[in-house]
Request: fold
Amino acid sequence: ELKVEQNPLFLSMQEGKNYTIYCNYSTTSDRLYWYRQDPGKSLESLFVLLSNGAVKQEGRLMASLDTKARLSTLHITAAVHDLSATYFCAGKAAGNKLTFGGGTRVLVKP
Amino acid sequence: GAVVSQHPSWVICKSGTSVKIECRSLDFQATTMFWYRQFPKQSLMLMATSNEGSKATYEQGVEKDKFLINHASLTLSTLTVTSAHPEDSSFYICSARAPLSVYEQYFGPGTRLTVT
Reply:
């Protein structure tokens, strides 16, 4: 059974600084996803990582995948207030199901 | 492309009544849809997998007689919460599987259910 753990659960950021969210998963996963969720809203797809060494970047967000370490990271460069949200990683398990990490609540302060 | 809608977006019902939530894939056909529940400040928990034309598969601990799922067409799955109680109040999110696309699953906007 796939288990996904994220840390930290909460991240208070200062604008302009860099931060990383970590996502560990327990067994082989076909792919690794990152999502953003704003309060009261559903999930917004950010990245899907398909293979070892994959790196995807969009604006101030960069995600990477190390399948050997079963680790994905979401790196935030020069944080800005608009990035305040909850970020989830998810792995694809058997039956095409997604298993989500616990989420990282990000608050960017000026 | 790959848009999923849910209806209603929010609903308030009285304890003991039933509520139906619809999940539609608007621009693609989905043989498989998933239903998730999310409590405040928690992660998404998969409730069940809905397969077109067959019975849904429920995750362990989810009461199938309480959460009735019907996937009658390739673009519509419904979740009916029967005899709702205040503890069923939650954010319900569906997703539809589009296997040929990069993301494979696309999420609906969610339905907030409040049971009074």
In short: Chain A is about 0% helix and 55% strand. The two ends of chain A are 41 Å apart (CA to CA).
